[in-house]
Amino acid sequence: MKFLLTMHMNPAVWEALSEETRDSVMTGHGDFITKIRASGELISTQALGSPDESAVVRVRGGAPVVTDGPYIESKEFLAGYYLVECESRDRALEVAAMIPDAGIEGLGIEVRPVVFFADAESETEFG
Hints:
Elements: E1 2-9, H1 11-16, H2 19-38, E2 42-47, E3 55-60, E4 63-68, E5 77-85, H3 89-98, E6 109-113
Antiparallel strand pairs: 1-5, 1-6, 2-5, 3-4
């Protein structure tokens, strides 16, 4: 079963950390990737740009309307994700706890089951 493990960034929390702790978190992602790649559970991961680089697109009256900024204004934002294949929700929760951000006070990892998946190579009911 696939799970999306999302990492949400709170800039105030991140900036309050020492440089050593921030470096440890970033290095820890490399170690985490190595472990879940070896276990065969890693499908993909992405880190996302900051909200000030984002845009929201809506189609109104048949024409796209683009608004600069994030979809939702909040102090926390989606910073990245890991898409993993785990045998159970319990294992996905264990894997999420291995992500360095989970150990930082004020940060956490959201674990959600994937109910639909498509990529460039897989056939789906939609094509």
